Amino acid sequence: EAKIQDLVPEPDAAALRRSIEYHLKYTTGKDPSAATLTDWRLAVSRAVRDLVIAPWFETTQRVYTEDQKRVYYLSMEFLIGRLLEDAILNLGLDDKLRSIVGNFDVDYAALLTDEPDAALGNGGLGRLAACFMDSMSTVGLAAYGYGIRYNHGLFRQSFENGWQAEEAEDWLRQTHPWEFERPEAHYPIGFGGAVSVDGAKATWTPAETVLAVGYDTPVPGWRGRWSNTLRLWSAKPEREFDLEPFNRGDYMAAAAPSVLAETISRVLYPDDTTAQGKELRLKQEYFFTAASLADIVRRFLAHHDDVAKLPQSIAIQLNDTHPAIACPELVRLLMDHHGQPFETAFEIARGCLHYTNHTLMPEALERWPTDLMGRVLPRHMALIERIDDHHAKSVKRPESVKILDGGEVRMGDLAFIGARRVNGVSALHTELMKQTVFKDLHELHPERVVNQTNGVTPRRWLYNCNPALRSLLNDTIGETWVTDLDRLEALLPLADDTAFRARFAAAKDTNKRRLADHLKHSMGITLDPTAMFDIQIKRIHEYKRQLMNILHAAALWNAIRQNPEKNWAPRIKIFGGKAAPGYVMAKLAIKLINDIGATINKDPAMAGRLQIVYPPNYNVSMAELLIPAADLSEQISTAGMEASGTGNMKLSVNGALTVGTLDGANIEIGEAVGSDNIFIFGLTAAEVAATRAAGYDPASHIAAEPRLAEILEQIASGAFSPDDPGRYTDLVTNLREHDWFMVAADFSSYWDIQSKIDEAWHDRDGWHRSAVLNTARMGWFSSDRTIRGYARDIWNAGTAY
Ligand SMILES: CCc1ccc([C@H](C)CC(=O)N[C@@H]2O[C@H](CO)[C@@H](O)[C@H](O)[C@H]2O)cc1
């Protein structure tokens, strides 16, 4: 097999050094003696970016000349994180650049972390899209990502007296060196207005139009041998500036056109739980979807003339329902711009579209009021009615199956009916999808639903973020695991090798000390790296049950004080996660974690036994620091509610043991690593459903679990909030009377499994053995495997590697 380096000749150090100096002087216009850290970072970024250009152009050329089928991944979110270190490691330049930058007397580590995160997403869905982009390039699949170039990504989180505070994120304040503006890639996007129909021909005359302008970011695969494109759309006014009002001194009116237009791509909605139904959100969804489809059809027609052939040439993936307007939009383009009759247009469109569902939470399923849809997108509203009608006629469907219901457009049903394939993101989730939200549609179209269990990129989430383990793996089994993660199985026999286990444990210890140093520096707190790092990092949500985790911590606090002599495993519970700004219960949970944490951390009896840590502003870069340092991975959602999870995969492949419910991908992780190497507890999804159906009485469970009863009483009486004793009254009442997420039902089982974990921790060798087996058996959870699954089962597209 050709050595990768031969494909992309590595630049020698001198050439790299010259390129950095060139960019500092001539692109940034800075004399090295006056350059700031950011100037150096921009210069290094541009020097590295230059190396991605050739394979980028080659990829584009090759895809054109071979007329390869293209995949278009449409997502409202791409939770990318930082790009410089990822590109450097992808191209194998880290050692060279570390010394070159050092010779310029610049702190290499500081230069890498000077880059702001591209936080263009909320959580799982957005990060999955970013992992998929990396994998599509690495396996050599011709793909484009399409999204929105938000000026402001996910808010910055800080804690004010333990309460979450939000601040606008501002990643574009500095130049973003990885994007190329594409003024030529611009499309007018219409809103509102009216539709005139003469005969079969309909003409939509929008009331307002904004321009969508594309910004391209190259997405280099492993070793940069293939590079796809991420095209993000920015909203611009058709007319930059209105001189007339300006001349009469009405400056606001003069600027209004651009302010209004740019609002569309100004900020990411920080909500990943509840579809708010805001008009601006709908406009964002249509804006990027319409611009992407216009760009896709233009590119197709550049080399093809028969739109009926579209499904052979392209496959479009809808990342949840957020781009589901793509179905009526593509039908509109094919009918109104390419003269296709409705039935043909619909079949062509459906032949191109594929929909991924990421949640079964009713409140997260988008349903747009028909009057809002009709006002903002009148032509589409008419076509949605036609699609619904056409479906009703083409299949004998039960009354319950309909897109239009109670004055709302059900975007999940529209996406399902308008797609060729629909997939869930874990085996359990896909089954539950077929049994619940899409039960009737699945019965009508039994061939349409397939499963594609999520995955994560082993580049960012192992090779890049865990240098200690990376070098141990490379030394032990070579480097091929990076693009073929199943090769980690070569570690299996080494789980029984004491020397290897010791080196594996040493890598974990290195990562724990690195995290401890970082938190010492950023929060002024001291962590004992020999303690168990028990980590729960994800968006704050009641179904993810951070509450149950902190209730366990409080019960542990009581138990340790009641029995200080017992051989408690020293434990540091680390939380990370943001709450949607409007999500009151989630924000209360954050405050409770900080309140209980403050009480535990100032209790001398807890020294060396229990500590609570909650660093603010959890994001991709912080995850890259926390995940390699984890001993225990908390995946404790109410069974049936976490579609998959991806943090669970990242933590396990980095040698953390999982404590979790049989939910989402936890089940498949358990099957892969073996039941001896994972801690499963709690009700199953079926038991949760049955318990609900039978009528769930949390109070009876609380009465039967004195530890829980005691802690709830303490919380309700203000033991952790002396400054506001009644702060948690509602929270405790809700738990005692409703507890929709079954914290009370699962608490005893959770307490028991955590005691088992305490014992397991004392058998350090046994723990390390399980940790090695976790890493060794996580090959399946590479997003390369997931993408190969989509290419085979959904897109019918080839991969070069
Ligand atoms: C309309 C508001 C909104 C925005 C985003 C979402 C996302 C679908 C929420 C999300 O990120 N879901 C997560 O997707 C991951 C990737 O598939 C899964 O691993 C997680 O289990 C799922 O919660 C729902 C509702």
From TrEMBL:
Q: Which cofactor does it need?
A: pyridoxal 5'-phosphate
**UniProt keyword Glycosyltransferase, yes or no:** yes
Name residues in a coiled coil.
Answer: none
Q: Which residues carry this modification: N6-(pyridoxal phosphate)lysine?
A: 650
Q: What class of enzyme is it?
A: transferase
One GO CC annotation, please? cytoplasm
One GO BP on record is: glycogen catabolic process
Task performed by this protein:
Allosteric enzyme that catalyzes the rate-limiting step in glycogen catabolism, the phosphorolytic cleavage of glycogen to produce glucose-1-phosphate, and plays a central role in maintaining cellular and organismal glucose homeostasis.
Q: Which PANTHER family match?
A: GLYCOGEN PHOSPHORYLASE, GLYCOGEN PHOSPHORYLASE, LIVER FORM
**Protein name, UniProt field:** Alpha-1,4 glucan phosphorylase
